Amino acid sequence: RFLRLAGCLGAAAGTEEEQAKNFQWGLHKSTLNHLMCMQFTDVAQVANAARNYEILHERDDDDAERPDKR
């Protein structure tokens, strides 16, 4: 959706780096906090990093729920 909206706005949406920064601000707070110190060149990089972080975070939550798992 973000890319579709940016496509409609054309140049007003900013450069790819500006779009990436704006997309980053729309992430869930815990994901945003993790990715804030990283710089991305486009929205796809932000989306991939956020997805990877959330996958790892889900695994951590699963492990915490099942302490008997070894």
Automatic annotation (TrEMBL):
<protein>
    <submittedName>
        <fullName>Zinc finger, CCHC-type, retrotransposon Gag domain protein</fullName>
    </submittedName>
</protein>
